[in-house]
Write a structure and sequence with these properties.
The complex is a heterodimer of chains A (328) and B (255). By secondary structure, chain A is of the alpha/beta class. By secondary structure, chain B is mostly helical. Helix content of chain B is 75%, strand content 0%. Chain B has ten helices and no strands. The two termini of chain B are 29 Å apart. Classes of the chains: A alpha/beta (328), B mainly alpha (255). Chains A and B meet through helix 1 and helix 3 of A and helix 1 and helix 4 of B.
């Protein structure tokens, strides 16, 4: 992380209050009667509390945490769809959020019409869509379905189209909510490659994923949320993932046991252990080489001895021949 | 503002296109139906009410059509406008776009519908031997103010619809009431002044009255009438805009 790369996204002490309760899907009449009888219950709860982090250009942040940890809410706030109740989010540059890709399409429109609508939603221009549409439909492998109503597509196909359109974005900040897990195996490989291409293009990326292997493979930073609170936010991806895995396995584990210092300590221990092992291996190798040399030296000595003996024998034979001749 | 408009122009066009396609795609009559239905309504009302009111009103068919045309536009615009925000929840919970785009897009579609009905209306005027004068140009004024009024009311309703889904039913009751209170098939001349003052507070009635004055009496309404119509439009739009602004990030919780 060089000093030259600038901060493109900064969350300062962000807290987001979410409301749940009876207010959803009740009518005006119901609302009035509940208000009058005092049975109107709305519970505010904090979906995220005191989340802070900075992302520099090219960073890839993985957000992990169990369901309901506040990951998606945080993403919505970063994308500007929601506003943080407290704290500040500062963004520098164009932001593209790919949240829950398969929804938001219109079942009655054709695949092509939906593609254009989605492109428009993502802020592309018509010229851009005209130009890239053939590519999109190829990438999604939906050429044969182009003029079919969208509702006739399988859910995998829908996700494929969504991904194909969304992956054309060239934003400074890219938000991915579980979008890499679309389609079948072959498509997934293709989409991951595409994603890597975007990230390699210099985008700062935030990835929410339940696949820890994905986070390990792709991210350079990890934010672990538990019930809205940040447990740890670190560049030590492996360590955080290890701790998170241990937390998931623990029957009644609390994330408190996995605080940053514990992670650091664990990391240090693991590192020391690895170093010790390496040194050991080097020592063993040196020993092996030494033994090998010894053996080689011995072998050479033996060969020399043999040569010496042979010349000796030859000399003796010569002597014997001369003695025989002299005897005649 | 211009830049913002440009930025969302493509999305807006696509939304308008979508609304059109959704409405007309799988119907045989297509746009024909939306012109036919006010005509059928006109026919029914003419048959039923001409006996009662036809004698005192000149050009009763045109009189009736003025009312039906205007009220029909108001009812359709607010009715579809009310659902426009909720229907696009899948979009605005995922992408940060101006939420009024959805309402404006459906209003374009409704406006074009209205324009077609207006053509039929002029045809009827000719058939009914209503004299066309240059003053018909003034019809653009109530059309403009009613468009803004419709959008304002649509904003209020679509915001409320997110919070209370039964606004739907309440609004259809209110529309029914508004229809009877807008003097579509009768005249207000025989009512006492007190009642006439109540009619004067009804924005839809005022628009209908304006159009009738231009079309049937061939006169231009007073400046006070112009201001009143503008006031209605501005009030509705301001209230709607305030609701959209105030609840912009709160709609999300309710869908």
């Amino acid at each position: 992380m060089s000093e030259a790369s600038r901060i493109v996204l900064s969350c300062r002490d962000v807290s987001i209050r979410y409301r749940v309760g009876d207010f959803k899907n009740i009518g005006l009449k119901e609302w009035v009667t509940r208000r009058l009888t005092g049975r109107y219950r709305v519970v505010d709860f904090w979906a995220d509390r005191h989340v802070s982090f900075d992302l520099r250009q090219g960073d890839m942040l993985g957000i992990i945490g169990t369901n309901g940890a506040g990951k998606s809410t945080l993403l919505k706030a970063i994308a500007g769809i929601m506003e943080p109740t407290k704290g500040r989010i500062v963004r520098h540059g164009r932001i593209a959020a790919l949240l829950e890709l398969a929804s938001g399409f219109d079942g009655d429109l054709t695949v092509k019409e939906n593609a254009y609508l989605r492109g428009a939603m993502l802020g592309y221009t018509r010229a851009f869509m005209d130009r890239t549409y053939p590519y999109i439909i190829d990438f999604a492998e939906l050429k044969a379905f182009e003029d079919r109503p969208f509702k006739q597509l399988s859910s995998g196909m829908k996700s494929r189209l969504a991904f194909a359109i969304a992956s054309l974005v060239r934003p400074e900040i890219l938000i991915l909510d579980e979008v890499l897990s679309v389609g079948d195996g072959a498509f997934r490989a293709k989409s991951e490659a595409k994603m890597r291409e975007i990230i390699a293009g210099g985008a700062t990326t935030i990835l929410v994923s339940h696949s820890l292997s994905q986070v390990r493979k792709m991210c350079s930073k990890v934010l672990w949320l538990d019930k809205g609170r940040p447990v740890v936010c670190t560049g030590d991806v492996e360590g955080a993932c290890d701790c998170y895995e241990a937390f998931l396995r623990a029957p009644a584990g609390t994330p408190a046991a996995f605080d940053p210092s514990a992670i650091a300590a664990k990391r240090a221990a693991a590192k020391a252990e690895a170093e010790r092992k390496t040194e050991e291996r080097i020592r063993q190798e040196e020993e092996r080489i030494r033994q090998e040399e010894e053996r080689r030296r011995k072998a050479a000595a033996a060969v020399a001895e043999l040569r010496r003996l042979r010349t000796e024998v030859e000399k003796l034979a010569e002597v014997r021949r001369i003695l025989k001749g002299g005897g005649k | 503002m211009i830049e913002r408009l440009k930025k969302y122009q493509f999305l807006f066009e696509e939304l308008v296109k979508r609304d059109f396609k959704k409405k007309y795609k799988r119907t045989v009559l297509g746009m024909g139906w939306s012109m036919l239905s006010p005509l059928l309504m006109l026919l029914v009302m003419k048959v039923v009410f001409e006996q009662f009111f036809g004698r005192t009103v000149n050009h009763y068919t045109t009189y009736l059509f003025c009312g039906l045309l205007t009220f029909g536009w108001f009812a359709e615009s607010t009715g579809v406008g009310m659902r426009s925000l909720f229907a696009n929840a899948g979009i605005f919970t995922k992408v940060n776009v101006p939420k009024y785009l959805f309402l404006l897009a459906v209003n374009i579609q409704v406006l074009i519908n209205f324009a077609l009905t207006l053509l039929v209306f002029f045809a009827f005027c000719a058939y009914d031997r209503v004299p066309f004068t240059w003053k018909f140009v003034f019809l653009l004024y109530p059309i403009a103010t009613l468009l803004v009024f419709n959008i304002g009311v649509g904003m209020i309703l679509s915001a409320l619809f997110i919070f209370f889904r039964d606004i739907d039913y309440l609004w259809s009751v209110a529309l029914q009431l508004a229809m009877y209170g807008s003097a579509i098939f009768y005249t207000v001349d025989n009512f006492p002044p007190r009642i006439q003052a109540v009619f004067a507070c009804n924005p839809v009635y005022r628009h209908i009255a304006y159009i009738r004055e231009v079309v049937l009496a061939g006169t231009i309404p007073s400046a006070e009438t112009h201001l009143t119509l503008l006031g209605f439009a501005a009030a509705a739009l301001l209230a709607g805009a305030w609701m959209y602004k105030h609840y912009n990030t709160k709609f999300l919780y309710y869908v």
